[in-house]
Input
Amino acid sequence: MSYLAFCTFDLKNASSQDYKNAYADLEEMGLRKVQTSDNGGDVVIPTTSAMGAFKGSSSGEVRDYVRNKVKAAFAARRFNSEIFVAVGENWAWGATTT
Output
């Protein structure tokens, strides 16, 4: 089954390069800052967030997998961070600006 994982994070005392590296790590594991909407347009997820679709047997399993992957990637870079991961089975998302 496919699940949508949304990850938001905060890096403490980080440089702009640290954030670039964090986004590169997230992209490598399937969490992207730019998503394609149902109508085909690109949507940029708000700052310090990324999301992606993952296969798994439960939302809890996918949550743990994604959270552990993000934690390991950030720990390998010695980031001091806060990480929040939410996973849903039947999902819809949208974006807008003001």
Remarks:
- The radius of gyration is 13 Å.
- The chain has a mean pLDDT of 94.
- The beta strands are 2-11, 34-36, 42-44, 49-55, 81-88.
- Residues 60 and 95 are 25 Å apart (CA to CA).
